[in-house]
Amino acid sequence: MANLAIDVLQPELTAHFEALMAREALSHAYLFAGGYGRYEMAIYLAQAVFCENRQGNGAPDGVCRACRLIASGEFSELHVLVPDGQTIKIEQVRELLEAFVETGFESEKKVIIISEAERLTTVAANALLKAIEEPVRETFVFLLTGNENRVLATIRSRAQLVHFPRNVTLIAEMLEKSGVQATEARFAASLADSKDEALELGESAWFSEGIKKLSRLVEIASEDLTEAYLYLSNLTELFEDKKQQEVAFEVLLMLASQAGLVKMTTKIFEAQRLWRANVNFRSALESVCL
Question: Please, what is the angle between helix 38-50 and helix 11-22, to 10°?
Answer without folding.
Answer: 20
